[in-house]
Amino acid sequence: MRPFSTRATAPTAAERVRSILAAAHSMTVVSDGIHTEVRRLDGAGAMGHFHLHAPFEDTEAQTTTRVPVRLELTDIAPTPVRDRVRARVKVTGVLAAPYDAEAAQSTCMEFGQAVLEDAQGRTYVTLHALEATELDPIATSEAGMLTHLVDDHSEVVPLLLRLVRPHPDSGMLRALPVAMDRYGVTLRLEYPHTHHDVRLPFKTPVTDIDQVGPQIHALLTTARRLSHTGHLLT
């Protein structure tokens, strides 16, 4: 497990992959030339249907049937931002038999590699890195929390914008939260022909879902203080 540090302000590639696997509602399984759309993961995420394990080392296991398999997942922002695809994940490996979508139990998958593709490029993640990473406590609740923030507390976003440095220029069309993780909140600033994301880090990484509210309130308190200070100086 990677130790927490107050200097960390964004999740690692391994943390993001694990969060996407855990929070996924659907995925595509490509095995033996067949594409299978798995649309209901019943809150168990991709790993509720696949058990990842290291490659077999014994010769006998390697001579048994080995069917290549690839899991494809798309991480989509739950809020109505521009360009909602946040990342894509592909996990490759082999199965001991052709994939059976109707199987009652999870399928054992001999892990090959995981690939995270996002705006920063392509990153390869090992099984060791995934196993050494704790699941972000916000991962499976993020969508509901962000939609609640946008639908029921829209006044919060203008306040959070006070924390953005440098300040957004007058050409900005709108700002919406696009992501939240144990390290902070990410806002997407949209302009007529482009957009970019800014992270607002929490004071310390969240280790329990109950800590999210206080961390957001701390950000808002700082934002209100900046707003009050700015008003006094004008």
Structure, briefly:
With 234 residues, this protein is of the alpha+beta class. It contains six helices and ten strands.
Task: Explain what this protein looks like in three dimensions.
- It is a single chain.
- The protein is α+β, with helices and mostly antiparallel strands.
- The protein is built from 6 helices and 10 strands, in the order αβββαββββαααβββα.
- It has helices at 13-23, 59-62, 127-131, 142-152, 156-161, 212-233, and strands spanning 27-31, 34-38, 50-53, 67-76, 85-95, 107-118, 121-125, 174-181, 184-190, 195-201.
- A hairpin with a 4-residue loop joins β9 and β10.
- The longest helix is centred in the last third of the chain and has 22 residues, at 212-233.
- The chain is elongated and about 70 Å long.
Give short descriptive properties of this protein:
single chain, 234 residues, alpha+beta, seven-stranded mixed β-sheet, three-stranded antiparallel β-sheet, 6 helices, elongated
How are the SSEs placed, and which strands pair?
Blueprint (H helix, E strand, L loop, with lengths): L12 H11 L3 E5 L2 E5 L11 E4 L5 H4 L4 E10 L8 E11 L11 E12 L2 E5 L1 H5 L10 H11 L3 H6 L12 E8 L2 E7 L4 E7 L10 H22 L1
Parallel strand pairs: 3-6
Antiparallel strand pairs: 1-2, 1-4, 4-5, 5-6, 6-7, 8-9, 9-10
- Form type: elongated
Order of helices and strands: HEEEHEEEEHHHEEEH
Cα separation of the termini:
48 Å
Radius of gyration: 21 Å
* Major pleated sheet: 7 strands, mixed
Number of helices: 6
Low-pLDDT regions: 1-6
The percent range for helix content is 25-40%
Note the beta-strand portion: 25-35%
Number of strands: 10
Rounded mean pLDDT is 90
Structural class: alpha+beta
